[in-house]
Amino acid sequence: MEGRRVDKVERGTWGSRVGFLMAAAGSAIGLGNIWRFPYVTGQNGGAAFVLIYVAFVVLIGIPVMIAEFTIGRSTQKNPIGAFETLAPGSWWRWVGVLGVVTGIGILSFYSVVAGWTVGYFFKTLTGAFSHEIAGEESARIFGQFIGNPGVSIALLFAFIAITMYVVAGGIADGIERWSKVLMPVLFGILVLLAVYALTLEGASKGLEFYLKPDLSKVRAGTFAKALGQALFSLSLGMGTMITYGSYLSKKENLAVSAGYVALFDTVIALLAGLVIFPTLFAMGLNPAGGAGLVFVVLPTIFGKMPLGTVFGSLFFLLLALAALTSTISLLEVPVAYLVDEKRWPRRRAVLSMGTLAFVLGIPSALSQGAVSVLSALPRIGMGFLDLMNALFGNYSLSVGSLLIAIFVGYRWGVRNAVREIEQDGTRFALAAHWAFLVRFICPVAVAVILGYILLTGQYF
């Protein structure tokens, strides 16, 4: 009993419902919304992609999130331990293993991009974008910045080190405390930036691209990319929400919480698009500009804004902190496994998994121009960071979400899941609809898209 009490203290619990919602939203709200969503949207036709993305959030994202929360709270364990508890002695534990591996894989390349936000915070703070610059100049500055190997690796190390520090301190005093303050402030800054972007000359063309669907631009691959973006943005398929769910009390309404998290996440993503696309078209830049879009576009705004240096510095600082709430959740998954199953002290688990993520992240950090072979991998046609993004940020999440839906729908059973959801007198009014989605719509939709990718050889 004494060992169990110590383990529970090390794992931590949420201090309040608001704290949990902000923490879960913080896990979902991050670079996936503000960095990834705009450029994936730009590469896939704009408004038509947005509609498909929102549909996937509602029909697949929310049901799978409810499933993950339910698995976690029912077992009070990490992904591997959760599947071993609910399906002992079966191969389902490997779904948990996939989640842990995926979390480390995403953390490795995600921290590279997160490090860019820290670097751009200091560049903006020191006046690098205090004057008006053209899109071409901004692109050149960004290219030189990410192509510097020393800077890239140092920023990767710094970001993972900060993540390790917070996770080592536990749940309530780390991610919960930070998220309750930082997420609302980030939202406020995004609103201000969006309002300003909409006043730029030529912004209407960007709004048309972003909000007026052109179904002729929809391809089969558009659905694959929209699904990948929805799962990546909501932190699904890799055990993060299982882990976060394991810290919940039986009084928490899991369905309502999942709805709130998905709503917050989607609003932030859509709001980021209202900042990016009006500015892109006003500045004459390409909406399919790739992974550097947010770092190329936003600096062209700050030089024209009153107190632009202040706003720009604050934006990149808050973007870095939003990314931090995501990297904390990514690191927490393997740490929870080592604490739960291997009985490692939390700090030892954090040190080992953080170090592993840093080492795995070095090739991604060097793939943006510093090392040519990593910038364009032979026979693959993409850089190492892009490859990691495709493998872990899309494929693994899709496979994980598919298997989680199948597990809850058929192996564990929706009746057991609903019984867990309705703990402590909670009523799940949409139980039948959720059961239908998680048993049929979610697995079929994900399987069809994965099948398309395997047959065509296309990636997300």
For the terminal residues, how far apart are their CA atoms? Answer: 47 Å
- Characterize the biggest β-sheet: none
Q: Which parts are unreliable, with pLDDT below 50 for 5 consecutive residues or more?
A: 1-10
Overall pLDDT: 86
The coarse silhouette is globular
Sequence of secondary-structure elements: HHHHHHHHHHHHHHHHHHHH
Number of helices: 20
> Considering DSSP H and I runs of 4 or more, what fraction of the residues is helical?
over 70%
CATH-defined architecture? Up-down Bundle
Fraction in beta strands: under 5%
Class from secondary-structure proportions: mainly alpha
Radius of gyration: 21 Å
CATH fold type: Amino acid/polyamine transporter I
SSE inventory with pairings:
Elements: H1 2-11, H2 17-28, H3 31-43, H4 47-75, H5 79-86, H6 93-125, H7 135-146, H8 149-168, H9 171-198, H10 203-211, H11 220-233, H12 240-245, H13 254-283, H14 293-302, H15 308-341, H16 346-365, H17 372-375, H18 384-411, H19 414-421, H20 431-456
Helix pairs in contact: 2-9, 2-13, 2-15, 3-11, 3-13, 4-5, 4-11, 4-13, 4-18, 4-19, 4-20, 5-6, 6-8, 6-15, 6-16, 6-18, 7-14, 8-15, 8-16, 9-13, 9-15, 10-13, 11-18, 11-20, 13-14, 14-15, 15-16, 18-20
